[in-house]
Structure formats: C-alpha cells, structure tokens
Fold:
Amino acid sequence: MSSNQPLISVTDLRKVFPAPRGTKAEDVVAVDGVSFDLHADECLAIVGESGSGKTTVARMIVGLETVTSGAVTVEGKDRTAAPRHLRDRRERARQVQYVFQDPYSSLNGRQTIGNVILSNLSLHATDRPGRTELQRHAQEILDAVGLPRRFADRLPRELSGGQRQRVAIARALAADPQVVVLDEAVAALDVSIQAQILNLLSDIKAERKVSYLFISHDLAVVNQISDRMIVMENGKVVDQGDTAALLAHPTHPYTRALRAAVPGPGWRPVRREKLAS
Ligand SMILES: Nc1ncnc2c1ncn2[C@@H]1O[C@H](COP(=O)(O)OP(=O)(O)OP(=O)(O)O)[C@@H](O)[C@H]1O
Structure:
C-alpha cells in the first residue's frame, strides 16, 4: 500500500431498503451517494441525527449489509461484492473490526472474558501460536484495555457497562485490525465512564497503528476523539472537514443546528424542532 493511499475509500455509496412486499410503504433510501476516505492513523467521525444513515454506511463497509450501488475499497481492494471464500471473509474481518453500542448484547453471555479474547486471537492469528503464547497475548490485551488479568475468568454479566465495553475493544484488538469501526460505542455509558473509554481509545490509537471510524450523534464526544468529521443528513453527506475547525465555525445550517443542540458550557441550546428546518 502506498503511504498516501486511503485505508478505506467509499465512493458514491447507496443503500435502498425495499419496502416489504404487499405493503403500500415506500422503499427507504438510507444512504444516498456517500463518498469519503479514511486514512492511516486517523479518526474520522460520522455524525448526524438518528436515522441519517450512519450505521448503514458502517454496516456496508464491514459487509453486514449489501451495497445497492457505489464502491467500498479497503487498502485498494474492492469490498463491494460478498467474499467468495472463508479466507477472504476472515481477512476482511481482520482488517476492519466493529465495536457495537451495546456490549452486553454483542458478547456471548456464556463465554468468559478470557475466551472472548482468545477466540478472536486464534481466529485471526497469521502464524500458528501455541496455547501459552495465545494466553500471554490475551493478558497483554487485557492490560492494554485497562482490565485486571483476573477478569479473564469472569462472565460478561459480572462486569459493569464500561468494563464490558473494554472487553468489546479488547476483542477487536485481538484481530490486530487496521481499522476499528466504533458505532455509538460510548453512547450507553455515563459521562465519566465515557471519558475513560475515550481516553483509552486515544491511548490505543497512539500506541498501535489503528484508525477509527467513529460513529456518533454526540458532537461533544466527536470533538474529543476525532481528527475529521463528516456530517450526514437524510442519507447524504452535507458537510465535512477538520473536526475542531468545523465545530468552532460551523457554516452549514445542519452542522450549526446540531452543534447548537449540544448542551454544556459554551453551547447555546436550541429547540429540537429547529433541527428539522
Ligand atoms: N434493515 C432495515 N430495513 C429497512 N430500513 C432500515 C433498515 N436499517 C435501517 N433502515 C432505515 O434506514 C435509515 C437509516 O438508518 P441508520 O440506522 O443507518 O441511521 P443512523 O444514523 O445510524 O441512526 P441511529 O443512530 O438511530 O441508528 C433509517 O430510516 C432506518 O429506519
């Protein structure tokens, strides 16, 4: 890969969910001509209100949703078509890992934390490591996400929401991915725990060669973590740029409305219905 080739390139991406047969409902155009690049060592945020199409873009990138038209490439390789072999599917999963909003439902309740990490480690290992080597690596990953090693024997239900999200991040890191897609990954957490997880993500990004695609409706969070952001409204990209600059001087009316809706010092409140105008 040349140094300036994007890690992920999305071109004119479109997703239409057909209306259920036999109903008078209309097709839903969830994503409508979206294009952007994600570069190495970058955190790119996708922001927008609920229903703007953020998750559908992410799901198409990781292959959880088919693409209606347009293209997704990862390191220059086409990802639009379904993988033909298990080998291709694994390779795709290794490169781009997904962390969901709700770690409780994304973790197997009967699998210990240690086994969650070990199974992703052995699935994506490029050589054939022995059990001892895998266990040593799993402990290193627990250290990296700030969880005590004794947690390896625990089940997800024995952990707090923040600890479970650390496990979800650990599971993603076990694949040694180039990109982690974080889909509302801190939205379910208390503000103080959110801050801890955001700090953890920043530390991991500084230490490992990993890029983030950070999906959020929360501009305060996006401001803390991302380098660049794109703003989606009704399936389209309506604004994009350097996060700090865009939030300091939002020019697009939708970005201004989103920003004004964020409560807290320095943010002027705006009534919700104004966002629709
Ligand atoms: N499987 C599906 N079938 C039909 N419509 C869908 C499906 N998934 C998403 N949609 C619709 O596509 C649009 C975009 O949804 P999407 O979840 O991508 O938005 P979002 O910005 O991620 O919102 P949220 O943060 O609430 O998840 C919405 O109108 C949604 O109802």
Q: What stands out?
A: The beta strands are 8-17, 28-38, 43-47, 69-74, 77-78, 96-99, 179-183, 211-216, 228-233, 236-242. The two ends are 44 Å apart (CA to CA). Residues 267-277 have pLDDT under 50 and may be disordered. The chain has one domain: 8-276.
